[in-house]
Protein backbone atom coordinates (compact mmCIF):
# COMPACT_ATOMS: atom_id res chain seq x y z
CA UNK A 1 0.00 0.00 0.00
CA UNK A 2 2.96 2.35 0.48
CA UNK A 3 3.60 2.18 -3.26
CA UNK A 4 -0.02 3.06 -4.01
CA UNK A 5 0.17 6.04 -1.64
CA UNK A 6 3.30 7.31 -3.42
CA UNK A 7 1.57 6.88 -6.78
CA UNK A 8 -1.50 8.86 -5.70
CA UNK A 9 0.62 11.78 -4.47
CA UNK A 10 2.70 11.67 -7.66
CA UNK A 11 -0.23 11.65 -10.10
CA UNK A 12 -1.87 14.49 -8.19
CA UNK A 13 0.95 16.77 -9.38
CA UNK A 14 0.35 15.99 -13.06
CA UNK A 15 -2.29 18.62 -13.84
CA UNK A 16 -0.32 21.25 -11.90
CA UNK A 17 2.88 20.59 -13.86
CA UNK A 18 0.97 20.63 -17.15
CA UNK A 19 -0.67 23.94 -16.26
CA UNK A 20 2.67 25.50 -15.24
CA UNK A 21 4.14 24.82 -18.70
CA UNK A 22 3.53 27.30 -21.52
CA UNK A 23 4.43 24.83 -24.28
CA UNK A 24 1.68 23.52 -26.60
CA UNK A 25 -0.27 20.77 -24.87
CA UNK A 26 0.74 18.14 -27.44
CA UNK A 27 4.43 19.03 -27.02
CA UNK A 28 4.12 18.61 -23.25
CA UNK A 29 2.68 15.15 -23.81
CA UNK A 30 5.44 14.30 -26.32
CA UNK A 31 8.30 15.01 -23.97
CA UNK A 32 6.63 13.61 -20.88
CA UNK A 33 6.25 10.23 -22.58
CA UNK A 34 9.65 10.40 -24.31
CA UNK A 35 11.42 10.92 -20.99
CA UNK A 36 9.24 8.25 -19.35
CA UNK A 37 10.40 5.83 -22.05
CA UNK A 38 14.03 6.68 -21.34
CA UNK A 39 13.55 6.17 -17.62
CA UNK A 40 12.07 2.68 -17.93
CA UNK A 41 14.45 1.52 -20.71
CA UNK A 42 17.25 0.32 -18.34
CA UNK A 43 14.78 -1.90 -16.47
CA UNK A 44 13.38 -3.35 -19.69
CA UNK A 45 16.84 -4.14 -21.07
CA UNK A 46 17.42 -6.53 -18.17
CA UNK A 47 14.54 -8.65 -19.46
CA UNK A 48 15.15 -8.12 -23.18
CA UNK A 49 14.81 -11.85 -23.87
CA UNK A 50 11.06 -11.45 -23.37
CA UNK A 51 10.71 -9.36 -26.52
CA UNK A 52 11.35 -12.46 -28.64
CA UNK A 53 8.39 -14.21 -27.01
CA UNK A 54 5.81 -11.56 -27.94
CA UNK A 55 3.40 -12.98 -30.52
CA UNK A 56 2.10 -11.11 -33.55
CA UNK A 57 -1.32 -10.63 -31.98
CA UNK A 58 0.25 -9.33 -28.77
CA UNK A 59 2.33 -6.83 -30.76
CA UNK A 60 -0.93 -5.53 -32.26
CA UNK A 61 -2.47 -5.20 -28.81
CA UNK A 62 0.58 -3.44 -27.36
CA UNK A 63 0.68 -1.07 -30.34
CA UNK A 64 -3.01 -0.29 -29.92
CA UNK A 65 -2.45 0.23 -26.20
CA UNK A 66 0.34 2.74 -26.88
CA UNK A 67 -1.72 4.62 -29.48
CA UNK A 68 -4.67 4.86 -27.11
CA UNK A 69 -2.40 6.09 -24.33
CA UNK A 70 -1.24 8.82 -26.73
CA UNK A 71 -4.87 9.78 -27.30
CA UNK A 72 -5.39 9.95 -23.55
CA UNK A 73 -2.44 12.30 -22.98
CA UNK A 74 -3.26 14.50 -25.98
CA UNK A 75 -6.90 14.97 -25.00
CA UNK A 76 -6.36 15.38 -21.28
CA UNK A 77 -3.43 17.79 -21.52
CA UNK A 78 -5.50 19.93 -23.90
CA UNK A 79 -8.49 19.86 -21.53
CA UNK A 80 -6.50 21.58 -18.78
CA UNK A 81 -6.14 24.64 -21.05
CA UNK A 82 -9.92 25.11 -21.23
CA UNK A 83 -11.44 23.99 -17.93
CA UNK A 84 -10.56 23.94 -14.25
CA UNK A 85 -7.99 21.51 -12.91
CA UNK A 86 -10.63 20.13 -10.52
CA UNK A 87 -13.08 19.42 -13.36
CA UNK A 88 -10.42 18.01 -15.69
CA UNK A 89 -8.88 15.61 -13.17
CA UNK A 90 -12.29 14.46 -11.94
CA UNK A 91 -13.71 13.77 -15.39
CA UNK A 92 -10.57 11.93 -16.55
CA UNK A 93 -11.05 9.64 -13.54
CA UNK A 94 -14.30 8.33 -15.07
CA UNK A 95 -12.00 5.79 -16.73
CA UNK A 96 -13.17 2.83 -14.54
CA UNK A 97 -16.73 3.31 -15.81
CA UNK A 98 -15.53 3.14 -19.43
CA UNK A 99 -13.42 0.07 -18.57
CA UNK A 100 -16.47 -1.68 -17.11
CA UNK A 101 -18.55 -0.97 -20.21
CA UNK A 102 -15.71 -1.91 -22.56
CA UNK A 103 -15.05 -5.17 -20.72
CA UNK A 104 -18.73 -6.02 -21.03
CA UNK A 105 -18.87 -5.24 -24.77
CA UNK A 106 -15.44 -6.54 -25.83
CA UNK A 107 -14.42 -9.14 -23.26
CA UNK A 108 -17.85 -10.54 -22.40
CA UNK A 109 -17.35 -9.74 -18.71
CA UNK A 110 -20.54 -9.63 -16.68
CA UNK A 111 -21.71 -6.23 -15.43
CA UNK A 112 -23.40 -6.50 -12.04
CA UNK A 113 -26.25 -4.28 -10.96
CA UNK A 114 -23.85 -2.52 -8.59
CA UNK A 115 -21.43 -1.71 -11.42
CA UNK A 116 -24.28 -0.49 -13.63
CA UNK A 117 -25.58 1.66 -10.79
CA UNK A 118 -22.15 3.12 -10.14
CA UNK A 119 -21.74 3.98 -13.82
CA UNK A 120 -25.09 5.76 -13.88
CA UNK A 121 -24.15 7.73 -10.76
CA UNK A 122 -20.81 8.73 -12.33
CA UNK A 123 -22.55 9.85 -15.54
CA UNK A 124 -25.04 11.87 -13.50
CA UNK A 125 -22.14 13.54 -11.72
CA UNK A 126 -20.54 14.39 -15.07
CA UNK A 127 -23.73 16.07 -16.22
CA UNK A 128 -23.98 17.96 -12.93
CA UNK A 129 -20.34 19.06 -13.13
CA UNK A 130 -20.95 20.62 -16.54
CA UNK A 131 -24.29 22.16 -15.56
CA UNK A 132 -22.63 25.35 -14.37
CA UNK A 133 -21.78 26.18 -17.99
CA UNK A 134 -25.49 26.34 -18.83
CA UNK A 135 -27.19 27.34 -15.57
CA UNK A 136 -25.05 30.34 -14.70
CA UNK A 137 -22.97 28.73 -11.97
CA UNK A 138 -19.36 29.68 -11.26
CA UNK A 139 -17.05 28.19 -13.89
CA UNK A 140 -13.28 28.24 -14.32
CA UNK A 141 -11.52 28.16 -17.69
CA UNK A 142 -11.78 29.76 -21.12
CA UNK A 143 -14.11 27.09 -22.54
CA UNK A 144 -15.27 24.67 -19.81
CA UNK A 145 -17.57 22.70 -22.13
CA UNK A 146 -14.72 21.94 -24.54
CA UNK A 147 -12.30 21.20 -21.70
CA UNK A 148 -14.75 18.88 -19.97
CA UNK A 149 -15.42 17.04 -23.23
CA UNK A 150 -11.70 16.57 -23.86
CA UNK A 151 -11.24 15.22 -20.32
CA UNK A 152 -13.99 12.64 -20.92
CA UNK A 153 -12.33 11.72 -24.24
CA UNK A 154 -9.07 11.30 -22.31
CA UNK A 155 -10.84 8.97 -19.88
CA UNK A 156 -12.29 6.87 -22.71
CA UNK A 157 -8.86 6.61 -24.38
CA UNK A 158 -7.25 5.58 -21.10
CA UNK A 159 -9.88 2.88 -20.69
CA UNK A 160 -9.07 1.59 -24.18
CA UNK A 161 -5.38 1.55 -23.22
CA UNK A 162 -6.17 -0.57 -20.17
CA UNK A 163 -8.43 -2.97 -22.06
CA UNK A 164 -5.97 -3.41 -24.95
CA UNK A 165 -3.07 -4.14 -22.65
CA UNK A 166 -4.83 -6.18 -19.97
CA UNK A 167 -4.13 -9.64 -21.38
CA UNK A 168 -0.62 -8.76 -22.62
CA UNK A 169 0.43 -7.55 -19.17
CA UNK A 170 -0.35 -11.02 -17.79
CA UNK A 171 2.23 -12.54 -20.14
CA UNK A 172 4.86 -9.81 -20.17
CA UNK A 173 6.87 -8.32 -17.30
CA UNK A 174 6.41 -4.68 -16.33
CA UNK A 175 9.66 -3.33 -17.82
CA UNK A 176 9.31 -4.70 -21.37
CA UNK A 177 5.58 -3.95 -21.41
CA UNK A 178 5.79 -0.28 -20.45
CA UNK A 179 8.84 0.28 -22.68
CA UNK A 180 6.94 -0.83 -25.78
CA UNK A 181 3.73 0.96 -24.78
CA UNK A 182 5.50 4.21 -23.89
CA UNK A 183 7.63 3.96 -27.04
CA UNK A 184 4.59 3.58 -29.31
CA UNK A 185 2.84 6.36 -27.40
CA UNK A 186 5.81 8.73 -27.83
CA UNK A 187 6.13 7.94 -31.54
CA UNK A 188 2.41 8.60 -32.06
CA UNK A 189 2.52 11.92 -30.21
CA UNK A 190 5.62 13.14 -32.04
CA UNK A 191 4.09 12.17 -35.40
CA UNK A 192 1.00 14.22 -34.54
CA UNK A 193 3.10 17.19 -33.37
CA UNK A 194 5.16 17.13 -36.59
CA UNK A 195 2.02 16.88 -38.72
CA UNK A 196 0.60 19.96 -36.96
CA UNK A 197 3.88 21.86 -37.36
CA UNK A 198 4.35 22.39 -33.64
CA UNK A 199 7.77 23.60 -32.42
CA UNK A 200 9.71 20.77 -30.77
CA UNK A 201 12.87 22.68 -29.78
CA UNK A 202 14.14 26.02 -28.46
CA UNK A 203 12.23 25.92 -25.20
CA UNK A 204 13.69 27.68 -22.13
CA UNK A 205 15.35 25.67 -19.39
CA UNK A 206 12.40 25.82 -17.01
CA UNK A 207 10.17 24.19 -19.65
CA UNK A 208 12.58 21.28 -20.03
CA UNK A 209 12.59 21.01 -16.25
CA UNK A 210 8.81 20.73 -16.26
CA UNK A 211 8.91 18.08 -19.01
CA UNK A 212 11.33 16.00 -16.92
CA UNK A 213 9.25 16.56 -13.76
CA UNK A 214 6.13 15.29 -15.58
CA UNK A 215 8.02 12.13 -16.54
CA UNK A 216 9.61 11.48 -13.15
CA UNK A 217 6.68 12.46 -10.90
CA UNK A 218 3.30 11.46 -12.35
CA UNK A 219 4.99 9.27 -14.99
CA UNK A 220 7.57 7.05 -13.28
CA UNK A 221 6.45 7.45 -9.65
CA UNK A 222 2.77 7.61 -10.61
CA UNK A 223 1.49 5.45 -13.44
CA UNK A 224 4.47 3.10 -13.63
CA UNK A 225 4.28 2.42 -9.88
CA UNK A 226 0.54 1.77 -10.30
CA UNK A 227 1.32 -0.86 -12.95
CA UNK A 228 3.85 -2.41 -10.57
CA UNK A 229 1.44 -2.34 -7.61
CA UNK A 230 -1.26 -4.22 -9.51
CA UNK A 231 0.83 -7.38 -9.07
CA UNK A 232 0.63 -7.11 -5.29
CA UNK A 233 -2.54 -5.10 -4.48
CA UNK A 234 -6.13 -5.78 -5.53
CA UNK A 235 -7.07 -3.72 -8.59
CA UNK A 236 -10.23 -2.52 -6.84
CA UNK A 237 -8.16 -1.06 -4.00
CA UNK A 238 -5.80 0.63 -6.47
CA UNK A 239 -8.73 2.11 -8.41
CA UNK A 240 -10.37 3.51 -5.31
CA UNK A 241 -7.04 4.90 -4.07
CA UNK A 242 -6.54 6.79 -7.34
CA UNK A 243 -9.75 8.68 -6.65
CA UNK A 244 -7.54 10.79 -4.42
CA UNK A 245 -5.98 12.38 -7.52
CA UNK A 246 -8.75 14.95 -8.19
CA UNK A 247 -8.77 15.93 -4.52
CA UNK A 248 -4.99 16.33 -4.39
CA UNK A 249 -4.90 18.22 -7.71
CA UNK A 250 -7.71 20.55 -6.65
CA UNK A 251 -5.97 21.36 -3.36
CA UNK A 252 -2.68 22.04 -5.16
CA UNK A 253 -4.47 24.24 -7.72
CA UNK A 254 -6.05 26.21 -4.89
CA UNK A 255 -2.72 26.64 -3.10
CA UNK A 256 -0.59 27.44 -6.18
CA UNK A 257 -2.97 29.19 -8.57
CA UNK A 258 -5.73 30.33 -6.22
CA UNK A 259 -8.13 28.36 -8.42
CA UNK A 260 -11.39 27.94 -6.50
CA UNK A 261 -13.64 25.26 -8.02
CA UNK A 262 -17.19 26.32 -8.87
CA UNK A 263 -20.10 24.97 -6.89
CA UNK A 264 -21.23 22.63 -9.68
CA UNK A 265 -17.67 21.34 -10.04
CA UNK A 266 -17.49 20.49 -6.34
CA UNK A 267 -20.92 18.84 -6.20
CA UNK A 268 -20.62 17.05 -9.54
CA UNK A 269 -17.09 15.89 -8.72
CA UNK A 270 -18.27 14.40 -5.44
CA UNK A 271 -21.05 12.49 -7.24
CA UNK A 272 -18.60 11.22 -9.90
CA UNK A 273 -16.17 9.97 -7.24
CA UNK A 274 -19.03 8.22 -5.46
CA UNK A 275 -20.10 6.50 -8.67
CA UNK A 276 -16.57 5.35 -9.49
CA UNK A 277 -16.03 4.15 -5.91
CA UNK A 278 -19.19 2.01 -6.17
CA UNK A 279 -18.04 0.63 -9.53
CA UNK A 280 -14.43 -0.02 -8.51
CA UNK A 281 -15.26 -1.75 -5.23
CA UNK A 282 -17.75 -4.20 -6.77
CA UNK A 283 -15.13 -7.00 -6.85
CA UNK A 284 -14.30 -6.46 -3.20
CA UNK A 285 -17.92 -6.69 -2.08
Automatic annotation (TrEMBL):
- Top-rank lineage group of the source organism: Archaea
- The EamA domain is annotated at 5-130, 147-279
The portions of this protein that span the membrane are 57-79, 85-107, 119-140, 146-164, 176-196, 208-230, 237-258, 264-281
Keywords linked to the UniProt accession: Membrane, Transmembrane, Transmembrane helix
Asked if Transmembrane helix is a keyword of the record, the answer is yes
The protein in question is named DMT family transporter
Name its species: Halobacterium litoreum
Source taxonomy: Archaea, Methanobacteriati, Methanobacteriota, Stenosarchaea group, Halobacteria
Amino acid sequence: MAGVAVAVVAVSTSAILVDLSDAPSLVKACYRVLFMTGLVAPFAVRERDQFATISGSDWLLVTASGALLAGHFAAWFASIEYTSIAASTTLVQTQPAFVAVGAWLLLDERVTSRVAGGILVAISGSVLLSAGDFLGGTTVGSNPSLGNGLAVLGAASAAGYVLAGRSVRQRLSLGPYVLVVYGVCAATLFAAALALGLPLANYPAHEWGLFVAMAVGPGLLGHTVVNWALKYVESSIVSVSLLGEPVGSALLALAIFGEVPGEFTILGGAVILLGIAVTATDRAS
